[in-house]
Every structure is written in C-alpha cells, then in structure tokens.
C-alpha cells in the first residue's frame, strides 16, 4: 500500500495506512486513525506483549470464546474475525474486529464503519502489519509526526512560553522576533547545564518558530535505534531540535538560538 507509515511507540510494530488518514487521540495503548475530511470509518489498533506463543493463543482464545468469530486470512496474517452492528443516535454502524498475532505479540484491530461501509481499507492496513524484532538494528526512519511527539512539542513549547513570561514578563508568540527573548533567558544562566529536558524544549521551540515562519517545514517523527523524537524536515534536510541547544550545552559550547535559526534560514 502506498501511504503513510506508522511505527508504534517503543517500536514494537509498524504498518502502512492511507495517505488521507491521520492519527487521532484514543485510549492508552490504542491508536486511532481515520480520514478527517471524508469519514469512511475509525481504525483502531492495540498491541499486547506476552510469553512465547501469546500471539497464536490470542487467536485461539477469541475463536473459542466468541461464537461469531471465524478464522480468516488477511495478507499473511491469520485472524479471528467477527463483526457486530450497533446503533448510536439513530444511526446504524458495523464494528469489524480482527484478533491476530504471532510469537509473543497479539493485535486487536477494529474498523467501525457506517452500516454497509466497506472493510477493504482496514484489511489493506492489517496486511501491512510487521513486528519489529527486539535487538535487531533497523535503519533510521522518518514517519509522519505521531501524537506522542506532538505532545512533546506542545509541552516543550508551553514550558518556554511560561518561562519567558515568568522571567521577562513578556509574551511569547512563536515568531522570529521572540528568539531575542529566548536568548535573554539562556544568557541569564537560569537553565542549568544538566537540564536536558529544558534545553530540548528550547530546541523544539526554535523548530516551532521555523515551522511557523518558513513554508514547507514539517514536523516528523524520527525513529533511530532507541531514539524516537520530533524533528523538522525541509525538502531533504533534517533539523534536529536536540542539536540546536542540548548537544551544544552538553559539549560545553555556548548556545545562540538566533545564530542557529539564521543558519537554517540561510541554508534553506
């Protein structure tokens, strides 16, 4: 399937999903995707880890306990599949459920569609499911920014906004002129050299200003070994918030966010 790629937090599994779907907030451990412009159904996926053989056991158990479940093949995956109708505010929906798994991982996938809606999209997504093996080295990948990184971006940015307000009694609007305020906070020595999270927040905020000011700069999630972090992509360039501030401070070098910002702008 040509589309977007999702790699789960912790990089347990990956899958591809249609390019017109986005990720939306859901319960913990469950990932929700749908098309926000033309709703064709809600696709949810949860993954669970157990002992060896847990994946196959989950399928067997579902077939045993759910009378309406039958064994189907979706791509290379054997699934226990069932569906049920329900009504909400006068509208009928069908919820399709697939339980599948292999080795020590089980998946629960559901696709809730309007009555009569097709399930082909969901089956195509399930067919792309891949388990990423622990201890295996995978090449670094850039995927559409996940909700888990959007939370990090927002958290870092909010911290900078409140710190600038507290220290300088000034507003911070996420525009180029705000870099001077940020530099004032850095120069005041308020942020200790060991405060990794706070230096990361500064790097994230510089990147947020770049995405506000320069068309075509886009947040992505970088998956590289154990590192899962937000970065900005511009054409074929990657701007890494970690390198803007924290890498410099850690190496004992001065951090000048105005210069860092300018060097990105000049090179773009």
From TrEMBL:
<feature type="domain" description="DUF3805">
    <location>
        <begin position="4"/>
        <end position="154"/>
    </location>
</feature>
<protein>
    <submittedName>
        <fullName>DUF3805 domain-containing protein</fullName>
    </submittedName>
</protein>
<dbReference type="Pfam" id="PF12712">
    <property type="entry name" value="DUF3805"/>
</dbReference>
<dbReference type="InterPro" id="IPR024266">
    <property type="entry name" value="DUF3806"/>
</dbReference>
<feature type="domain" description="DUF3806">
    <location>
        <begin position="178"/>
        <end position="261"/>
    </location>
</feature>
<dbReference type="InterPro" id="IPR024315">
    <property type="entry name" value="DUF3805"/>
</dbReference>
<dbReference type="Pfam" id="PF12713">
    <property type="entry name" value="DUF3806"/>
</dbReference>
């Amino acid at each position: 399937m040509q589309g977007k790629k999702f790699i789960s937090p912790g990089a347990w599994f990956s899958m591809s999903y249609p390019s017109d779907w986005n990720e939306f907030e859901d319960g913990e451990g469950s990932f929700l995707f749908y098309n926000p412009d033309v709703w064709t159904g809600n696709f949810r996926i949860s993954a669970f880890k157990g002992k060896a053989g847990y994946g196959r056991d989950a399928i067997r158990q579902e077939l045993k306990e759910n009378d309406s479940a039958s064994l189907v093949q979706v791509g290379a995956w054997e699934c226990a599949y069932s569906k049920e109708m329900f009504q909400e505010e006068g509208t009928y929906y069908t919820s399709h459920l697939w339980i599948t798994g292999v080795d020590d991982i089980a998946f629960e996938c559901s696709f809730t569609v309007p009555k009569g809606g097709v399930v082909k999209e969901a089956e195509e997504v399930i067919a792309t499911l891949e388990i990423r093996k622990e201890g295996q080295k995978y090449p670094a990948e850039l995927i559409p920014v996940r909700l888990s990184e959007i939370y990090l971006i927002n958290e870092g940015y909010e911290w900078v906004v409140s710190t600038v307000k507290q220290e300088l009694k000034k507003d911070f609007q996420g525009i180029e002129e705000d870099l001077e305020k940020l530099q004032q906070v850095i120069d005041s020595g308020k942020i200790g050299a060991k405060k990794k999270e706070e230096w990361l927040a500064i790097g994230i905020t510089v990147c947020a200003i770049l995405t506000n000011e320069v068309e075509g700069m886009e947040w992505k999630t970088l998956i590289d070994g154990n590192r899962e972090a937000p970065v900005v992509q511009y054409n074929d360039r990657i701007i890494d918030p970690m390198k803007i501030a924290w890498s410099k401070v850690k190496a004992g070098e001065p951090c000048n966010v105005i210069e860092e910002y300018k060097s990105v702008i000049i090179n773009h």
